[in-house]
Amino acid sequence: MNDRNKPVTLKIILVGNSGVGKSSFMNRFVNHRFTNICLLVFDVTSRDSFSALEEWRKEFLIQGEPQDPDHFSFIVLGNKTDLSDREVSGSKAQQWCSEIGAQYFEGSAKADLDVEKPFLTAARSGLQQYKKHTLENTGHFQITCEQPRETRNACEC
Ligand SMILES: Nc1nc2c(ncn2[C@@H]2O[C@H](COP(=O)(O)OP(=O)(O)OP(=O)(O)O)[C@@H](O)[C@H]2O)c(=O)[nH]1
Ligand SMILES: [Mg+2]
């Protein structure tokens, strides 16, 4: 099997306020692991959980150490669409997503509604980032090592 056909294991992370449904949403879908993907999750019946996402986003960019923070593409997920007491409209969420360059999805872990799409998009996006950072177009692994600035040119060996 050449490198191009090797299965790739990626890891995914969902962040958001407590109780928005991160575990429920994840459990509905997979046990697989993905990398380079962050789903920002909020509860469509909680304005606070939506407002908190900007902080979660900043926190992830610092703590999550993505390879390319300036071009990291988030996926925003509004959960609990089965409930009627909605506080965050789809268009409001969509507007913020446009500002930060994220893709927006909504669904319900409880009603098992629209659970797959965000994960499939996340997997596709994660794979793209994985390829961009670790594979050349030929499919061969490319390991790069950037020296700290102060040690550059200090030794030619
Ligand atoms: N109505 C409704 N309730 C949901 C939905 N998803 C999750 N819940 C409920 O919301 C509560 C919190 O769900 P969790 O999945 O535990 O939330 P979490 O984000 O993982 O919470 P923490 O682990 O505390 O951070 C539970 O009581 C779930 O049953 C949904 O789509 N609709
Ligand atoms: Mg949980």
UniProtKB/TrEMBL annotation:
Q: Does the keyword GTP-binding apply?
A: yes
Q: Name one GO biological process term.
A: endosome to lysosome transport
Q: Tell me the keywords, alphabetical order.
A: GTP-binding, Nucleotide-binding
Q: Which GO terms describe its molecular function?
A: GTP binding; GTPase activity
Q: Please give the SUPFAM superfamilies that the UniProt record associates with this protein.
A: P-loop containing nucleoside triphosphate hydrolases
Any one cellular-component term (Gene Ontology): late endosome
Q: Does the keyword Cell cycle apply?
A: no
Matching entries from SMART domains are given as: RAB (SM00175), RAS (SM00173), RHO (SM00174)
Similarity comment: family membership: Belongs to the small GTPase superfamily. Rab family.
Record protein name field? Uncharacterized protein
